[in-house]
Amino acid sequence: MPSMRAVLEARRKAAAVRVEELEAELERVRAGLADAEEVLRLRTIGLEQYLEALAEEEQPAGTDAGPLRRRPVGPRRAVPHRQNAAGVEDLSVDYQAVMAAAAGAGSDGLGARRAAVVLGWDSASASRVEGARARLKRLVERGWLVEAKPGRFTLPSGLQADRIVRPGGGSSGRSSTSG
To answer: Which of 167, 146, 173, 168 is nearest to 96 (CA)?
Structure first.
């Protein structure tokens, strides 16, 4: 029969081998994670550049003939001017969520970092916060929001907070019974 010392030594060696195997596997997983994060970062940058290019195309031309009418490219819907829209429901779901957040912010106003959170974006990412700021500015340009203080976006006086419909059907305030 083997001695107790030999049995314990064999168990220790087996445990050391297992630790080395797991450390090697951990390094492979970390390397894979780093590669996947880099791919995600590059694709995020590409998407943001694409959206910026679309936004630049959407800007009205500085001609006397007025702004050029362009159809939106891809799944993104253009933000209609407020006077040309029946209501907030004419906005895309993301913009409806931003409008609901602005309605909920009240007189304090909605900031770009909070808008990024509402959009489901990483609010620690400067590029995401700037993307949210661009969306807020687009809503200001189209008459849906006003920038009362620099960086603080609120509803214009003619738009009632209780009329803002949250994506998914609920309203941001009290419900109306009018049909």
So the answer is: 167
